[in-house]
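S.,

Sequence below, as promised.
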Amino acid sequence: MSIRPYLAISGTIFGIVAILHLLRLANGWQVVLGTWTVPMWVSWGGALVPAVLCGWAFRLAVRR
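The prediction came back faster than expected:
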């Protein structure tokens, strides 16, 4: 596998993760892991970091 498809696939996955976190924030979906309810503020980082990685992956894919 060359680097360009890898970057495109990675960027797509990171983009989907970012969108799901934004949907959680917009719709107020609760996430429960065992007995712990994940706070909504976790999704802010969960949206920001993958969004940056998505942009970075696609920028690198276009350059190559």
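The chain has one domain: 3-63.

Coffee later?
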